[in-house]
Design brief:
single chain, 234 residues, alpha/beta, TIM Barrel, Rossmann fold, 2 domains, two-stranded antiparallel ribbon, 8 helices, 42% helix, 18% strand
């Protein structure tokens, strides 16, 4: 899908929110992202996460693991991806993944690699975001609840603290929120006041991230959002 959009566009950024690394063979995911970055002229944002939806893993991978295992696979997979993007040949001996003299070509067009964004609400993911990523996406809508700006702001401060502990500057880091295209300007403004720099919307009618719009409704709701909401934030 992203390669299709890459061919049709020339300016917009392209990415997923987010690709669960443990659901993939990490070297395969590295190749997919690198290829889209190359053919798009360097417009990819690499969204990576641990994964939270069991059905995705059961139906499209080798199976569903408990959270600690998924997190360990995520860390190993992240190292593999970054090394394949930046090194000529990679050998890796991990608990879950192994590579021997692996070569990935072409490399991503962006150097040293595409920007990395991650999701996640737990402290271990927030620390990983602070250490290795260029952006973090806060899910405003989770199963059974709508998280308020205060929860976002609290985690922003946690990421900032972890960054200080690891002597990392966040001046080019992006704090983002994932919401719905039905969100009002007031909701988005509240998150902006809490420190949000980038607001992502998904095409769901609700409640929450459920009941997606049909394909023939996508254009209408997107135009409405562009007409009624976006001008408030220019």
């Amino acid at each position: 899908m992203l390669s299709y959009f890459a061919a049709l566009t020339s300016r917009i950024r392209l990415g997923s929110d987010v690709s669960p690394v443990p659901r993939w063979i990490p070297s395969h995911l590295a190749k997919v992202i690198a290829t889209v970055d190359y053919i798009s002229g360097g417009r990819v944002i690499a969204g990576l996460g641990v994964g939270t939806v069991p059905e995705e893993f059961i139906n499209y991978s080798t199976g569903w693991d408990e959270a600690p295992v998924r997190f360990e696979k995520f860390k190993e997979g992240l190292e593999i991806i970054l090394r394949l993007w930046t090194e000529d040949k990679v050998t890796f001996e991990g608990k879950y993944y192994k590579l021997k003299d692996a070569v990935l070509l072409p490399k991503p067009l962006q150097k040293p690699h595409p920007p990395l964004w991650c999701g996640g609400l737990r402290r271990r993911m927030l620390e990983v975001a602070a250490r290795f990523f260029d952006g973090w996406v806060f899910p405003r809508l989770v199963p059974g609840a709508s998280l308020p700006p205060e929860e976002f702001e609290k985690r922003v401060k946690i990421i900032e603290r972890y960054a200080r502990e690891h002597n990392r500057e966040l001046k080019n880091f992006t704090f983002a929120v994932l919401g719905s295209i039905t969100d009002t300007a007031e909701i988005i403004e509240a998150f902006r006041n809490a420190g949000c720099q980038y607001y992502i919307v998904e095409l769901f009618k609700g409640p929450g991230l459920t009941n997606p719009f049909s394909p023939n409704e996508y254009v209408d709701v997107t135009k409405r959002f562009a007409r009624d909401i976006i001008p408030s934030f220019k």
